[in-house]
Design a protein that fits this description.
By secondary structure, this protein is an alpha/beta fold. It is built from five helices and seven strands, in the order αβββαβαβαββα. Helix 3 links the parallel strand 4 and strand 5.
Length: 205
């Protein structure tokens, strides 16, 4: 073998090693990213200190009058309570994706309440006209400034899921990427699990 052939073979070996190293590096980097992404989703929720939907009244929008927060869900459905505000930039950014997510929830019979915190009807009217609300979404105002304290929120946005009995199933802290399919499947799983538990309790009496 000539010197030229040895050099060429050595270069080919080095090139192959570099390509192999590159593939391994990309694989490791992707694995780390994917693991971080999963871990991040796992930390979206906090321990469920809240057991049931609070017995507070909220002001309906756009009509006048107060109703119990729990009454905004119909029998046989779950209820999402989404704390937000027209003055809240993260709330505004996530709202389009959240409304699309809410529209999908209609298939599960889930109602959604956009509960405005520290807001006014005139500001909501101006803000919300940019968006089309799905039929299962309604707006209410926390006119008594009780919701954040009784739900256990330090800031908005925060989102709570309750079953048809008003039992708290999960809480999503802060803004979320509601376009991810996992939110729908998680909601479906939690509601079905809650119904199965309730049926089991009834059957054992």
């Amino acid at each position: 073998m000539t010197e030229s052939q040895k050099t060429s073979k050595s270069l080919n070996t080095s090139t192959k090693m570099l390509i192999l190293f590159g593939i391994i590096s990309v694989t490791i980097a992707y694995s780390i990213y994917h693991r971080h992404h999963i871990d991040q989703f796992d930390t979206l929720e906090t321990p469920l200190l809240l057991k049931n939907i609070p017995t507070i009244k909220v002001e309906k929008y756009p009509s006048d009058g107060q109703v119990a927060l729990s009454s905004l869900a119909k029998k046989g459905s779950g209820l999402f309570v989404h704390l937000w505000g027209t003055w809240c930039a993260p709330c505004e950014r996530e709202l389009p994706a959240f409304l699309k997510f809410s529209e999908k929830l209609d298939k599960l019979g889930v109602k959604v309440v956009l509960l405005a915190i520290n807001d006014k009807k005139k500001d909501i009217k101006k803000f919300i006209k940019r968006f089309k609300l799905p039929s299962n979404v309604s707006i209410a105002l926390d006119s008594g400034n009780l919701a954040m304290d009784q739900l256990g929120s330090a800031k908005v946005p925060d989102t709570y899921l309750f079953d048809e009995q008003g039992i708290h199933l999960t809480k999503f802290v802060g803004p979320q990427d509601w376009s991810q399919k996992i939110y729908y499947f998680k909601t479906q799983s939690l509601l079905e699990g809650a119904k199965n538990v309730q049926n089991l309790v009834i059957e054992t009496h």
